[in-house]
Amino acid sequence: MKKILIIGKSSYIGTKFDEYIKESGGNYSIDFLSVRNNNWKIFDFSPYDVILHTAGLAHVRETEENKKHYYTINRDLVQSIASKSKSDGVRHFIFISSMSVYGIEEGTINRETIPKPKTNYGISKLQAEELLTKLETSTFRITILRPPMVYGRNCKGNYTRLSRLANYTLFFPKIDNRRSMIYIDNLSMWIKKVIDSGIYGIILPQNNDYINTSELVASIRKANNKYTCLVRVPKVLLKIFKIKTLNKLFGNLIYEYEKDNELFKKIKMIDLKQTIELSEEHK
Fold first, then answer.
1. pLDDT tens digits, residue range 64-111?
2. Using CB atoms within 10 A of its CB, is residue 26 exposed (0-12), middle (13-18) or buried (19+)?
3. Among 37, 201, 205, 214, who pairs with 190 as Cys (CB 3.0-4.6 Å)?
4. Which domain holds residue 18?
5. Cβ–Cβ contacts within 10 Å for residue 227, how many?
6. What CATH code is carried by the domain that includes residue 94?
């Protein structure tokens, strides 16, 4: 039996991974550990084969007042928990990082792309990665996943904001673009593959297909039994209106399909149409 400890008792990715494992079956035992207080310091990590660190500060507007919290939670706490995991004899530590470490709002990212984060969130995640790699040995292996935008039912972030907007918008701009995104259960499949196969290093997970924002909106509306009229609009007009969420989503931002996808090509990920239907279910 593979024993997994998830750091982050209320994290979206952690709770959804637990649900996915329970539904898919297999020889796994999963526990959760809250790190909102210091009780984790006396917790025994030694019975576990894998630590999955999903706790973190995200989806909060950055201010000068909360700046330090990003580094305390997303960097320092990660290093401390990883150090304890190592000293307690855990052999595999998985860290959920982010595409934000690249600091790129538009373009193509591959394994050679140098991270240059611009936000406290992205900087703190990258600094955590750097500290983790210093802890790695042949008996304490590190896996870092850098997912793009994660979406699914009851998720936080840009998908939820876009879904709300879509449901009130009959007319929507038709823009040709490509985005890397990943549905929450597809991300869970990647994590399971990492655990089952003992895959280490940096992983760039994504859906099987890139997403077009206009088609995404139409799919969201269709899942809610609503018709959409897509209207051709030059991208420059969107920039003039300065609607931050839309400008961000209408640009091209993708992970290049590379060797990660060869490693994971046997994963039967859920297709886009079904992921949108599942995300919009029971709203």
1. 888 999 999 999 999 999 999 999 999 999 999 999 999 998 999 998
2. exposed
3. 205
4. 2-146
5. 8
6. 3.40.50.720
Interval 202-242: pLDDT, tens: 999 999 999 999 999 999 999 999 999 988 877 666 665 55
The three-class DSSP label of residue 231 is strand
Q: How many CB atoms neighbour CB 41 within 10 A?
A: 10
Any idea of the CA torsion for 232, 168, 270, 190, to the nearest 10 degrees?
Answer: 100
59 lies in some domain: yes
Residue 1, number of CB atoms within 10 A of its CB: 8
Q: Which of 192, 194, 201, 195 is nearest to 49 (CA)?
A: 195
Residue 68: alpha-carbon gap to chain centroid: 22
Q: Domain for residue 117, yes or no?
A: yes
Give me the number of domains the chain comprises. 1
Q: Give alpha helix (H) positions in 25-119.
A: 67-71, 77-87
Residue 54 lies in a domain: yes
CA distances from 82 to 15, 52, 94, 97, 134 (A): 20, 10, 9, 14, 11
Instruction: Give me the count of residues in the chain.
Output: 283
Q: What are the C-alpha distances in Å from 198 to residues 162, 174, 250?
A: 36, 42, 36
